Every structure is written in C-alpha cells, then in structure tokens.
C-alpha cells in the first residue's frame, strides 16, 4: 500500500461512502434483524458489524489506551492531550475493500458514532501525526508521523515450509503452538533486552499474532531504531534455492569453543534451552511428523555437515527403523529419530577427527524451523498500519482478542477464547437487559485479559509520567517567577 494509492482510494471511498452511509442511516438499526442471521448460523460478518460496534466493541478501552492519559489536570495539558489523540490515524476498510485513511477523533463518542455509521469491516491503527490527519493537505511536507507503538506481526503463512498439517491461511492445533513459541521468545527478549514493560499481545483473528509495544520510549523510536530492533529478532533468514536449506543469522563461537553451550548470544542461548529445544523435541516433531516425511527429513539432513551422521540417519529412515517400547520407552518415532541424530553428532564430536562445523548444526536446524519468523517490514516503519485489537476478522468473524503472554499455551484460537462475532451477539442478547451484559459474554474474558496483562500497568505508568511532567512544569513556573522577582529586586538598587 502506498500513501498515494490509499489517499486516492480513501478520497474516492469517502465519496462513495457518503451515499452508502446515508442509506445505512435510513435503515433501521435493528438488532433483531441481524439476530435472524445469527440463528441461521449464516456468518455474514459484515451484516453483524453494526450491532457489534453499537453494543460490544470496547471503543472506550481502545480510546483510553491510545490516549495515553489518565485524568487531565490543567488547561494546558488538556489541550495537548486533545491534540495528541486527534492526530492519531484510524483507517477503515469498508465493504468492497475501500480504504478510508486518515480518520481521526477527538473522543470515544465520535469514534463510536463513526463506527456505527460507516460500519468498517476492519479498523487499522496508524501513527500519531504532527497535525490532525484530516487536515493533512494543508500542511504539505511538514505533515509527518511523530509517534507510534513498536509493532510486530507474525503470520503462520511464513511457516509454510515447516508445516505438514496446513498451508496458507489455514491453522490447526498442530501448527498453532508455533505462535506460542513466538510469544514466549519475543516477550522475554523485548522485556529483558530492551527493557520494555507495556506489551499487548493480540490474536489477529485468523492466522497470526500481533504485539504492540507501548512504552513511551518504544513509541518514540525512529524508523532506523525500529529496523534495528526488528533485525535483532530476525534470526531466521529464509530458505536457500530449491527450498532445501534454511538460513539463519546465528553466530557461534568457532571450533571447539562453540560446543557445550554458552556460545551463542545469551538471549538466543536462553530461548534455545528454555523454549525452542523442548518445543521442537516434545511438541513440534511429533505434531508435524517431519522425520517421517521424505521432503522434510532431507531438508534436515542437508543442514548436517557430516557424511557419517547423515548415513546413520538415512539408514533409520530408509529401513523405517522404529523405537522399541521395551528399550526406548513410549517415544514418538519423530522424536526418537531426532535423538538418534543428536547422539550420532555427539559421537562424531568425540571421535579422533572432529568436524567442528557439526557443533552448531543441531541448533541451526531447530532455530531455522521454530524460531519466530517476523514480518519485519511491519515493525520497521512508524507509518505502517496494523489491525486494531478487538476488531473482527472479516473472513473468520473472530474477534482480535488479547493474549496473556505468560499463559499463551492456554489460549485456544479455535474456541470461545477467540469469540466469533455472531456468538458474541447471541450471548449479548441473552444478557441484553443487564448493564454488565458485555462482561458476561466471551468479550468479558478478553477485556479482563486486556486489563490484567496490559492496561492496568500502563494506566499507572501514564499517571506517574503525568505527575512527573506536572512537577517539572511547576518547577519551571517557580524558577521563572523567582527569576522575575530577582530581576525586580535588582531594579530597586
Ligand atoms: Zn496446522
């Protein structure tokens, strides 16, 4: 998407939309009518969006978060605050894939009103600009993005070469754990290596996850700094010609020093032992059956730089050698064949003529299969749009709900953890007369996760930041008035 294209689309979209909006406003905003669709289980997602925005979508929470403010305290800060939120871009995708960019709102009420009239199928959040994006044309070259969350996008389609269960947009319980692996590795890296504290993890509604890093320091990163952070996490570098060999940018100590651990970057070392290796052996290999698939088995072999080890592994594969229950225990054949490769590598390394290239090959294989694969371009630019949390995925009808990073294994995207919009509306109708109806639906759980894992801490940090700024302002005022009274005193002499 280029700005020019979007702008043109946006402007023509807005014109078409005026007509459409008029029509929608004439329609009866009738909840019951949409319920008929729900009963028939016809998931026409778009027709359910208006009641969703009217009754369930948490625009208050979204707006409060993106305002980065608690209660305002002085006239000046109130004005700054309003300016700040008004300069944030909201992009709507309307029916017919019409992008309407550069919407902005002064408060939650005006956002909700616009959602109910325009009924976007998707909402994207852009940066905070130097000026109100609605008036961007008046500012020419001085209109530019000044701040936005550091965001990450991980999409299951980027793992197609290591998945045997699904491809493209499909996901299933066998491949979804790759996303949990990504959350665990990135969350620790962002917190411990970069010191970020306010990270919101969100299910994208279909085949991936997003992270929003909201610390003030992260929001103010330049594009160059964002690129550096994205590069830091871009360990997997793609697949070599013919799809045979996977590339990583892991660097190891060379020769004998590299063996026995502790020689990779400490964060990668930790990710390897705590997350990637156990996941690869216990979950991923049995689920994907990579050691039973000729294609995947050969890819793994192509990364082992030793003919003896390869021969032993090929023998197991070609003779269909299986673990013996009495001797090996009840172990999955894929895990077992991998363990035999590990043993063969270790044996070689103890031998008289050591091939030191072997020392890192097992790590390289694991990293190149299960280490998080970022869509780094999304992270690199302040001006990149990203789908808003709590919006509904137009293809699946599932809501983009927050994920608790400390308990991500428990999140099941195939269940009411990621509720479908028609189910939510059904639930809501049951509790409709209750003022806490939304909390009683599956959205209640999503909002609880948002509050507990993200917003409660950020709210406190915002308050503290505000107090600090107020004190600084007061000190400045005090210094200024002291200066003035000293000047007046000087005048008297
Ligand atoms: Zn799958």
UniProtKB/TrEMBL annotation:
It is an enzyme of class 2 (transferase). Belongs to the eukaryotic-type primase small subunit family. GO terms for biological process: DNA replication, synthesis of primer. NCBIfam families: primase_sml (TIGR00335). One of its GO terms (molecular function) is DNA-directed RNA polymerase activity. It comes from the Eukaryota. Residues 12-25 have a biased composition (Basic and acidic residues). One of its GO terms (cellular component) is alpha DNA polymerase:primase complex. Its EC number is 2.7.7.-. Residues 1-26 are annotated as: Disordered. Keywords: DNA replication, DNA-directed RNA polymerase, Metal-binding, Nucleotidyltransferase, Primosome, Transcription, Transferase, Zinc. This is DNA primase.
